[in-house]
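Input chain follows. Return structure tokens only.
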Amino acid sequence: MSADFIARILGMVVFAALGVYWGIGLGGSTEGKVELYAVVLGLVGALMGLVLTPFLTTRPVRAVRILLGRFSAQTLVSGLVGLMAGLIVAVLLAFPISLLPSPFGDVLPFVGVLLFSYLGVAVFVTRQNDIFSALRFNLPGRSTETPEEPADGGRAILLDTSVIIDGRIVDIARTGFLFGTLLITRFVLNELQYIADSADSLRRQRGRRGMEVLSELQKDATVPVRITDMDVEGVREVDDKLVILARQLRAPILTNDYNLNRIAELQGVPVLNVNELANAVKSVLLPGEPLRVNIIQEGKESGQGVGYLDDGTMVVVEDGRSRLNDQVTVTVTKVLQTAAGRMIFARLSE
């Protein structure tokens, strides 16, 4: 049985008893109608308890639990310490303030409790990183590393489903540019399995390729890979879970999903975007530089030929149609950066 069901039953009984008690009280002044009042108001109370109890008990508790789950343990501890500090200051000031003439002496102590409690929580939560850094530095026997960082000086990096399916993460990990532990959550694995079991053949192939990529990552000892059962309660979307978990762990998200990238950046979560990395490592070419390229197809305009560099950059060669399937030397005339990538315009070298 769910908590809502149990709360409804208990609320129905309690409200029905209150309705009967109220009906007896109202019917006492009317001769012969005590039972009628008790039965009617008891049924009304039972109905109200059945309907309203979850909104008064379980659902507010669930909402508070979901809200608290969005904050890291460090934030919660900082808020609690700040609340205690604010209450202590308010208590110390309550006695002298209470000596003020009425109505100030009656109202201002309560206002001081609210004000200093808010200020204490706000200050401690805002400066939580500085406070915990000072504690880690000053306390003997404490490590200077943050809790989410492994002892080897690395960090946790959350992997998104899209970057696993993409496959380039294996080559990036082998280069040694990633420091830390690649963290794969159980809900990401479930989504990957759902894609691999899809009725669509293309989605099924992408899901199975993601499984193969995970297998290669686990076999490669360059970067440690760990599968975790950490989850976020009350949230269904995988992207939302990743963002909340990244905020709690203070870990970056490795992805190539543009929408997830934007959502994470808006919430202050660092993102490692594979597509941005691929664009950043492409070779820089300036107009006038020579270039060797194999022309493999015709261009859209008359006489144009098209070739590609090793990193996938398109090279459009003027008058290159006559040199199809030949490797030629060209001179760069213009470099154009578009949303889809980079295009290089060149002409045949004399």
